[in-house]
Design brief:
Blueprint (H helix, E strand, L loop, with lengths): L4 E3 L3 H10 L9 E2 L9 E4 L4 E7 L6 E8 L16 E3 H6 L6 H6 L1 E6 L1 E5 L5 E6 L5 E12 L2 E11 L13 E2 L4 H8 L7 H4 L9 E5 L18 H11 L5 H5 L14 H32 L1
Parallel strand pairs: 2-5, 5-11, 6-11
Antiparallel strand pairs: 1-3, 1-8, 4-5, 4-7, 7-10, 8-9, 9-13, 10-11, 11-12
């Protein structure tokens, strides 16, 4: 399952990067008029507008378009609490009916990310990205529906089994991550969901960079680079801050001037108290003797 991902690129930068990585022809690929709905984020979450790439059926031109993440079929007329964010590839291949039937044949798209988050059984979040730094191109399905008077285009990410990669130690489902050469195959608006299309629904064969991150991402509210900072790196930074002082550190410390006279110990204080008491008693005796002599002389 994929329930959270990261895409921090603004619309213009995202378009340029897709061109650099030979996913699209920049001169022929434009954003839809509502591109401002997409807001870059370290914490893209369900029902937010996320960046997608599709091919128009009439013009066959690729278009970048923000879509709501959480699938609503075109025939639905009311909002549902069940808006699936993922579609299992095995279900798409083996089922000739169901929620995604129309979309898998006619409305396939690419959902664009820099990386995604996944949690293991211990609820520890991990961040996963391509080791080569390229964009992640998730296979997706979309639909446009008019629900309670509002027209909205929604999408879901297609998932598959992770295969034998390191990711399988974390979770048993992973997004279908396409190579640039498979993008045209998947979003071809003239091709129905044939065996040729189904062949691209396979585990990613490239190398992934996987590491633990902060549990801050457990909430959909945070949105900062801290979310994708390796947890071990954070610990190292704290360790360096709290490391024991070295001899050189100690020699360079500023020590304020203090009274160098040593403080008396407890025994010294007791002895001093005894001496003081003896002195006081002696003085008292002398004074008493003086007054006694004065009285007798009278």
């Amino acid at each position: 399952m994929c329930g959270r991902f990261c895409c921090t690129l603004d619309p213009s930068t995202l378009q340029s990067k897709l061109h650099q990585e030979k996913v699209v022809d920049q001169s022929d690929t434009q954003w839809s008029d509502d591109s401002d709905k997409y807001q870059s984020s370290y914490n893209c979450s369900p029902w937010q507008y996320i960046p997608t790439l599709l091919e128009h059926k009439q013009s066959h031109k690729k278009t970048l378009m923000p879509m709501r993440w959480g699938f609503i079929a075109s025939w639905m007329k009311q909002h549902s609490y069940q808006r699936p964010i993922n579609a299992r590839s095995e279900t798409l291949i083996g089922n000739q009916h169901g929620l995604f039937q129309e979309s898998k044949n006619l409305y396939r798209c690419i959902i664009i990310a820099e990386g995604f988050y996944e949690w293991n059984k211990q609820k520890q979040p991990f961040y996963i990205k391509r080791k080569d730094g390229h964009l992640m191109l998730f296979a997706g399905l979309y639909a446009t529906s008019t629900v309670e008077g509002e027209t909205v285009t929604t999408c879901a990410i297609v998932t598959t089994e992770p295969g034998h990669c390191e990711f399988s130690k974390i979770h048993n489902r992973v997004p279908v991550i396409l190579d640039p050469k498979d993008v045209d195959v998947w979003i071809n608006s003239q091709q129905r969901f044939t065996n040729h299309i189904q062949e691209v629904l396979k585990p990613f064969e490239g190398e992934l960079d996987i590491y633990r991150v902060s549990t801050e991402v457990n909430s959909t509210k945070p949105n900062s680079p801290n979310l994708i900072t390796p947890l071990d790196q954070k610990k190292d930074s704290i360790s360096r801050f709290l490391k024991p002082s070295t001899v050189q550190d100690e020699s360079n410390k500023y020590v304020p001037e203090v009274d160098r006279k040593p403080k008396p110990t407890l025994d010294q204080k007791k002895r001093k108290g005894s001496v003081d008491d003896h002195s006081k008693n002696a003085k008292t005796a002398k004074i008493t003797q003086f007054f006694n002599k004065s009285s007798s002389s009278k």
